[in-house]
From TrEMBL:
Transmembrane segments: none annotated. Its cofactor is FAD; heme b. It holds the Pfam family FAD_binding_6. InterPro entries: Cbr1-like_FAD-bd_dom, FAD-bd_FR_type, Flavoprot_Pyr_Nucl_cyt_Rdtase, FNR_nucleotide-bd, Globin, Globin-like_sf, Globin/Proto, MRET. The keyword Glycosyltransferase does not apply. Residues 138-238 form the FAD-binding FR-type domain. It catalyses: 2 nitric oxide + NADPH + 2 O2 = 2 nitrate + NADP(+) + H(+); 2 nitric oxide + NADH + 2 O2 = 2 nitrate + NAD(+) + H(+). PROSITE patterns: FAD_FR (PS51384), GLOBIN (PS01033). Keywords: 2Fe-2S, Heme, Iron, Iron-sulfur, Metal-binding, NAD, NADP, Oxygen transport, Transport. The keyword Iron applies. This is nitric oxide dioxygenase. Its EC number is 1.14.12.17.
Length: 377
């Protein structure tokens, strides 16, 4: 396989931008209409994911150490979309057809052989990982909503009950699908450590009028069904025994409540400082519960803060990261940050300016999409 030739041909195709996934999916659904039901009704976002994932695969094609774990993750993750081994050849055919369409006379028999071999390897690694995980876990977990507390027009705290045991580590996230929005999976983070009765709390805020968050906040009811994917993410889980500083924006407190649960179950043998931020007091939707937690646990300090209002009544003024830095110095603690992408990026930047070594800062880093990416599945 000529890796340079493979990469340069992909670059030439990627220059056609949105036309590439449009052509790919048209070709796939025309020749294999049976796979259409695996994809969301609206394909608008899906198109970017295909190009993004293929780009990542092709650019790492000569770095097996990085590519293989990524493909194995994709293979396992695609089980929740009901992707089966027999779907892979259909996708491979559509991919080759797409490449030949855009490359025209540059699509030679040697290049076709390279792409066929590369896709064959990708499909093999993904199906083997999927088969291995099928021996241990179901493709998804069915769950029922057992409580739904609409704390604000745009925010709900719900408790769900998986029908089968779902093991996860505090700080990990789960992909969630509601049948009201089929095939649209989004990550949400349990706000508790695993419980004896297996129930899981989720905090969901509507963002950008998006389909899944809007449905989970405004459209679902107690008794409704959800599907859950396997737990993902390691960066927000606790490691070591050192004290921790948790900096949260909005529903970013969810993983931190899970970590606090974990420290409590381990006997409260480390100090935990939680800085829970939002723009206004009204946005601090979980303040009462957080204060009750802090009152009950001597090792826990909770500092609520607001960035767009003045400080008052135990709520400090400023962005959560700035308030956290005011409470320093943090010489040995591990610092965890969770919130919107902008909040996380801004906080990481401020912590670097403050001089905190990057290895002591924990944030979730996600590169995988949450829908089937077609081109490599
Ligand atoms: C690991 C992980 C854990 C997550 N945990 C939670 C959680 O516990 N609670 C929760 O409410 N959300 C959480 N999210 C965000 C969630 O997965 C969805 O992205 C969000 O609910 C929007 O989905 P949607 O379908 O409604 O909107 P989409 O159609 O996905 O997005 C609508 C618009 O909002 C933008 N957008 C998406 N997410 C965000 C965001 N977080 N901040 C700002 N803009 C955004 C999109 O770019 C788009 O323009 C988590 C995300 C990740 C990656």
């Amino acid at each position: 396989m000529d890796v340079t030739r493979l990469k340069s041909s992909w670059q030439q195709v990627a220059e056609y931008g949105d036309e590439v996934p449009l052509f790919f999916y048209s070709s796939l659904f025309l020749t294999h209409p049976e796979v259409r039901s695996l994809f969301p009704v609206s394909m608008a976002l899906q198109r970017d994911r295909l190009v993004g994932a293929l780009g990542r695969i092709v650019s790492d094609v000569d770095r097996v150490d990085e590519l293989v774990p990524f493909l194995q993750h994709l293979g396992r993750d695609h089980r929740k979309f009901a992707v089966l081994a027999e779907h892979y050849p259909a996708v491979g055919e559509a991919l080759l057809h797409t490449l030949s369409h855009f490359l025209g006379t540059r699509w030679t028999s040697d290049l076709a052989a390279d792409w066929t071999a590369a896709y064959g390897l990708v499909a093999q690694v993904m199906t083997e990982a999927a088969d291995a995980s099928a021996k241990e876990t179901p493709p998804w977990w069915d769950a029922t909503i057992v409580s739904h507390d609409r704390r604000a027009p745009d925010l709900a705290v719900m408790t769900i009950e998986p029908h089968q045991r779902l093991s996860f580590r505090p700080g990990q996230s789960l992909a969630v699908e509601t049948p009201l929005r089929p095939n649209l999976w989004r990550y949400y983070t349990p706000a508790n450590a695993p419980r004896v009765n297996d129930t899981i709390d989720l905090h969901v805020r509507v963002v950008g009028g998006g389909p899944v968050s809007t449905t989970l906040v405004q459209g679902v009811r107690v008794g409704d069904a959800l599907r859950l994917g396997p737990p993902v993410g390691e960066r927000l889980t606790l490691s070591g025994r050192e004290d921790v500083v948790l900096i949260a924006g909005g529903t970013g407190i969810a993983p931190f409540k899970a970590l606090i649960d974990q420290v409590r179950s381990e006997g409260g043998d480390r100090r935990v400082y939680l800085f829970a931020g939002g723009p206004t007091r009204r946005s601090l939707y979980d303040l009462r519960a957080l204060r009750a937690l802090a009152e009950a646990q001597p090792w826990l300090r909770v500092v609520p803060c607001v960035s767009r209002e003045a400080a008052s009544d135990g709520v400090e003024g400023g962005d959560a990261v700035d308030v956290a830095l005011r409470h320093g110095p943090w010489r040995s603690e591990s610092v965890y940050v969770c919130g919107s992408p902008d909040m996380v990026a801004g906080s990481v930047h401020r912590l670097a300016e403050y001089g905190l070594p990057r290895e002591r800062v924990h944030v979730e880093e996600f590169t995988t999409g949450t829908e089937p990416i077609g081109g490599i599945s």
